[in-house]
Write a structure and sequence with these properties.
Blueprint lengths: L15 E4 L3 H12 L4 E4 L3 H9 L17 E4 L3 H14 L4 E4 L5 H8 L4 H5 L1 E6 L20 E5 L6 H13 L3 E4 L2 H24 L6 H4 L4 H7 L6 H10 L1 H27 L8 H15 L13 E8 L4 H11 L6 E6 L5 E8 L1 H13 L3 E3 L2
Parallel strand pairs: 1-2, 1-3, 3-4, 4-5, 6-7
Antiparallel strand pairs: 5-6, 8-10, 8-11, 9-10
Helix pairs in contact: 3-4, 7-11, 11-12
Length: 377
C-alpha cells in the first residue's frame, strides 16, 4: 500500500464565508474544507443551509457566539441579487475581500461600485468558475466540481492587488486554473460559449413536447448530446440570460441570420431541390459548423486532437464497461475520449472509444480476438 501524498497547504486564509448554499456554494465549501480551509455558511433558506452543512460544506455560525471574522466572503447567489448581497457583505465585514461567482459580471460590478466607498470598491473583485451541472442545489454538490476547470477572475478598476490575489488563490486552492479578463470581455465570451448554447438547447428540447412517441423512440445520441443542458434550473438561467442581455442579443441575432439563410434554401428546395440557391447555403452552414467545432480546445486545453473512433457493442450488464476499459488498457492503448450511445429498446450500448489513429486497427483486431463485437468503421 502506498502512503497518501501530503495535501498542499491552501493559500486561502480561514475562515471563508460562503453566502448561498446551492450547487456552486456547497461545492465550493466541500472543496475548501478538503483543502483545510474553515468555511462559514449563510443562506436565506434555512433548509438549503442545513442541507449544505449536513453534507459537510461548512458550519453555520452561531450569531450569539464570538465568531471569527472572515478573510474572504464568496457570494454564490443568482446574478439578479448578487450585487445587493455583495454590498451587504462589504458593509458587514469591513476587513474581508468580497467576490461574487455569478456568471455575468458587468451589470453586477456596475451596481456594486455605484456609490461605493473607495475602501469597499478596493475590496471587491468579481469572479466566475466555469463549472456546473444540470442538477441544482446542494444535493448535487461535488468537491471536485472545479477541478481542472477555468475560473475567471474579473477585477474592476478599483480592485486592490490584495483582492485580486485572494480571488486567484481561491480558484487555485479548489483545483481550477485562473483566467483573468475584464467584465465586458468576460460577458461577451460566456455569451457565445455558455449562454447561447443554453438557449439553443432549451429551444431544441422544447420542440420535443409535441413530438410523437414513435419519433422519440428513434432518438439517438445526437439528440441527447444537444439537449443535455436543457435540464437546467429555469429560474437561475432566466436571471443569467437577462443579466447578460446585450451580449446574448448579438449572438442570437447572428444565429437568426444563419437560420434565415437555411430556411430560405429549404423553401427554394421545396419547389426544386436542385434550384439555384437551394444547395449552397445548406452546405455552407454545415461546413462552417465543421470549422467552428474544430476550434474547440481538445484534451488538456490543447489543440483539438484528431482521433479515430473504435466503436464496440457492449451489453448492458454490470461490469461489462469496466471489463472493456481494462482490456483496452491491457492492449496498451490509451482512451483519449469516450462516448456512449444506448440502443433504443435494446439491452446493449454502443461505446465509441477515441484513440490515436495509429492504434485503431490493432485495437479493433485485439478486441475482436477477445470476443467483443466491434462495429466496422
Amino acid at each position: 500500500m502506498t502512503a497518501d501524498l501530503p495535501r498542499p497547504t491552501a493559500a486561502t486564509a480561514s475562515p471563508v464565508r460562503i453566502v448561498g448554499s446551492g450547487l456552486l456554494g456547497a461545492s465550493l465549501g466541500l472543496a475548501l474544507r478538503a483543502a483545510g480551509v474553515d468555511v462559514q455558511l449563510a443562506d436565506t433558506s434555512p433548509v438549503s443551509l442545513a442541507l449544505a452543512r449536513d453534507l459537510g460544506a461548512g458550519t453555520i455560525p452561531d450569531p450569539a457566539a464570538d465568531v471569527p471574522e472572515p478573510a474572504l466572503v464568496v457570494v454564490s447567489t443568482p446574478p439578479d441579487v448578487a450585487a445587493s448581497v455583495v454590498r451587504t457583505e462589504l458593509a458587514a465585514h469591513p476587513g474581508a475581500v468580497v467576490t461574487d461567482i455569478a456568471s455575468v459580471k458587468a451589470v453586477i460590478a456596475a451596481e456594486v461600485l455605484e456609490g461605493a466607498s473607495p475602501d469597499d470598491a478596493a475590496r471587491y473583485v468579481g469572479s466566475h468558475p466555469m463549472a456546473g451541472r444540470e442538477r441544482s442545489g446542494a444535493s448535487g454538490a461535488d468537491a471536485d466540481l472545479f477541478a481542472g476547470r477555468p475560473w475567471v477572475v474579473v477585477p474592476t478598476e478599483s480592485s486592490s492587488p490584495a483582492a485580486v490575489a485572494a480571488a486567484r488563490s481561491l480558484a487555485s486552492d479548489v483545483g481550477s486554473f485562473v483566467v483573468q479578463m475584464g467584465a465586458a470581455e468576460h460577458d461577451r465570451a460566456v455569451a457565445v460559449v455558455s449562454h447561447l448554447p443554453q438557449v439553443l438547447s432549451s429551444v431544441l428540447a422544447s420542440r420535443l413536447n409535441d413530438a410523437d412517441e414513435t419519433a422519440l423512440d428513434l432518438a439517438g445520441q445526437g439528440l441527447r448530446d444537444t439537449t443535455r443542458i436543457a435540464a437546467a434550473d429555469s429560474r437561475l438561467w432566466t436571471a443569467i440570460l437577462t443579466g447578460n442581455a446585450a451580449a446574448l442579443r448579438d449572438e442570437l441575432v447572428a444565429v437568426r441570420e444563419s437560420l434565415d439563410h437555411v430556411l430560405g434554401a429549404i423553401e427554394q428546395g421545396l419547389a426544386d431541390p436542385l434550384a439555384q440557391g437551394a444547395i449552397g447555403p445548406l452546405d455552407r452552414v454545415i461546413r462552417s459548423g465543421n470549422e467552428g467545432a474544430a476550434r474547440i480546445p481538445g484534451k488538456h486545453g490543447g489543440a483539438p486532437g484528431r482521433y479515430t473512433e473504435v466503436t464496440v457493442l457492449v451489453p448492458d450488464n454490470p461490469g461489462a464497461l469496466g471489463r472493456l476499459f481494462g482490456e483496452v488498457g491491457e492492449a496498451g492503448v490509451n482512451i483519449e475520449d469516450l462516448g456512449i450511445e444506448h440502443s433504443a429498446g435494446q439491452r446493449v450500448g454502443l461505446v465509441r472509444l477515441s484513440v490515436v489513429p495509429q492504434a485503431a486497427a490493432g485495437l479493433e483486431a485485439e478486441l475482436d480476438r477477445r470476443g467483443w463485437r466491434v462495429v466496422a468503421r
